[in-house]
Inverse folding.
């Protein structure tokens, strides 16, 4: 199990980051298409959600790495 985690964790993190980049790219395209009227409202709520989710994800990653190393 520990070896599995050692090898799969980096790949998992890389794929998660790639997925997030794709989602953000699609979202920015959507904002450009929709126009500035709706986008400011959407961006404000999304920025809040992104900050919260990034905080949760970083906490999880740090705890996983802490468990994994020690």
């Amino acid at each position: 199990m520990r070896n599995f985690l050692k090898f799969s964790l980096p790949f998992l993190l890389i794929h998660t980051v790639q997925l997030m980049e794709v989602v953000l790219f699609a979202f920015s395209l959507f904002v450009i298409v929709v126009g500035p009227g709706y986008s400011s409202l959407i961006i404000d709520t999304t920025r809040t959600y992104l900050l919260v989710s990034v905080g949760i994800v970083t906490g999880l990653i740090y705890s996983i790495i802490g468990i994994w190393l020690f």
